[in-house]
């Protein structure tokens, strides 16, 4: 009878793993971790228009559309057909400004008040950094009811989830399968690496702040003037890379996949691109429209004089 009882205890311990020896503090930590992780995952992967993956998707989609248009303009110039220069220059400036704003949004620091909370990679990383001690191997692996020990999983899916989370966490705490422990936490090197990528976006943030979001005075934008030659369509690509690299580190830390790629179009993105923008018949009308618009706007200047 005594042997059977011991055997039963061994089976229970095997089933529960490290859970049987967890303290009250550990259990409260698990509750806090689940609440925080739910918030991180919601900000990163939900269907909200400001979720991280949506912001990244928009950033990359708009880039692909514009650069395809820019290439079409180049081909037209080479063939002698030309492209509407004023429209091309307008779109180029709008594209560059909006991409810098999008980069700034993704790298915005955490707000000091809940009413000003933002959905940004930098804000999530800051929350993860402050709560790194809660991201233990046990909490990370068992979230959502996944067994800590993959070999006691009730089905193949749970077993694979457990194994993959352990493998991810091995990378996060720089350990091997033989050195696993329930209370291990990620090394701070990953946070530092992600923040380094965020810091590489500083030039885009300065440009967005000084030239797009705010009308900075000549004195306050003096440093930015020196940085302007570094800004280009090519430089934007380095910004994309920094954002995606930081997002992928965050993905590992929160334990949830984050989509960071150009979406697959469900329609022909080049539809009607081969159609002329203006026909010869409409050209005279558009000149008149241009002059009428100028006259309409000029009246504000004349009627506003004191």
Describe this structure in words.
By secondary structure, the chain is mostly helical. It has a domain of 177 residues. The chain contains twelve helices and no strands. Helix 3 runs antiparallel to helix 4, helix 3 packs antiparallel against helix 11 and helix 5 packs antiparallel against helix 8. About 4% of the residues have low confidence.
Straight-line N-to-C gap: 104 Å
Strand coverage percent: under 5%
Which class best fits the helix and strand makeup?
mainly alpha
What is the share of helical residues? 55-70%
* Largest sheet, strands/sense/barrel: none
Radius of gyration: 27 Å
Stretches where pLDDT is under 50 for at least 5 consecutive residues are: 5-16
Order of helices and strands: HHHHHHHHHHHH
Q: What count of helical segments does DSSP give?
A: 12
Strand tally is 0
Q: Name the average pLDDT.
A: 88
Instruction: Give the assembly state of these chains.
Output: single chain
* Large-scale geometry: elongated
